[in-house]
Amino acid sequence: METLIQSAVPESGSAGQRCPANPRLKRRIPPESAGSPAAGAEQVRAAASKGGSLINYINAEEILPKNLLDEIRRYFEGGALYVPRSEGRAAWGTGSGTRAELDERNRAIRREYAAGIRMSDLAVKYCLSSDSIRKIVRGA
Fold first, then answer.
1. Where are the alpha helices (DSSP H) in the chain?
2. Which DSSP string corresponds to 36-47?
3. Which of 50-54, 83-87, 113-117, 133-137 has the lowest mean pLDDT?
4. What is the phi/psi pair of residue 2, to 5°?
5. What are all long-range contacts of 8-17, with beta carbons under 8 Å and residues at least 24 apart?
6. Mean local confidence (pLDDT), 108-113
């Protein structure tokens, strides 16, 4: 069973309502890895291969040669050390498709505004604040 975490609450409207044009997003976290820095290397690799977005803790003694580990200990010992990926990082939302969905929503907002629909009406339709609609329309 997976733990679901709600995020992206609509900016306007009552807290319990869903907006058809701006649905709530959900992020899935495998229960064996949620909040557990002691998760085994295999569990971490499995979560990462399934697209998990957790911080991956792996004991360096499990994967690094002894001579390299000794060299690292000369500079840093007894803590968590972040090692960035070498291939760079994808832009926000590109892997999940969220960026494309938001770009399409923003294009629709601009088209509707150009067709004469008022910003206040667009704010209600898309469950966004008037300020957010204004920024989208003006390209900010």
1. 41-49, 60-63, 66-75, 98-114, 119-126, 130-138
2. -TT--HHHHHHH
3. 50-54
4. -110, 155
5. 10/127, 10/128, 11/127, 11/128, 11/129, 11/132, 12/123, 12/124, 12/127, 12/128, 12/129, 13/127
6. 97
